[in-house]
Fold this protein.
Amino acid sequence: MAPVLRIAAAGDLHASEDHRERLTDSFVEIADRAELVLLAGDLTTFGLPDEASVLADACRAAAPLPVVAVLGNHDHHSGRAEEVAATLRGAGVTVLERDHLILELGGIEVGVVGTKGFVGGFPGAEIADFGEPVLREVYRETTLEVEALERGLEAVAGCHKSVVLLHYAPTAETLVGEPEPIWAFLGSGRLAAPIGMHRPDLVVHGHAHHGTARGSIGEVPVYNVAVQVTGQDFVVFDL
């Protein structure tokens, strides 16, 4: 039997002092059931370092369980995203920003490619690289995210398992349940291209609180792990 890697994932935790006890309890519990935790952005409520410290303390309670995270739009809201990331890194969390990480867990080499993703819409209703400079800047920002995914997936291609960690959705399938007119603000179909080409074993994202738990890009499973969708502190995947 090939070894199995157990990964726990959650998004949109929106940490704050009010959630301290619940968050700590959930991390203590998952430490006994998983070998890796992935956090899919919106880690804080308003992007404040004090909020990040609540989540950092919860992650410490689960040590030495490795935790890998990306930031979400809430984490950027107050213009203090670097401080949020630094607070989490101080607790041993790996915060990926257009980057990747290779871990060896239980004899399995797993590559995690992590980036926030961005907006732009999906085939049939996408922002184009045309028109006003501000719209073209949105297009360019998504381009940088797509390019980071491509680089990261190339870098982890030799790993036994590969995972993509996002905040924004790379497919509209996991947005079903959200009002369709706002899908363009919940993700971008352009993120799907490198995923479809490299075919990682798993893709997780958050952001869409009223979306659908599971979709796919070709044969690649894509999960919306926002806790508002899953109704669980963590979803556990066996790879």
Notes: Residues 21 and 109 are 33 Å apart (CA to CA).
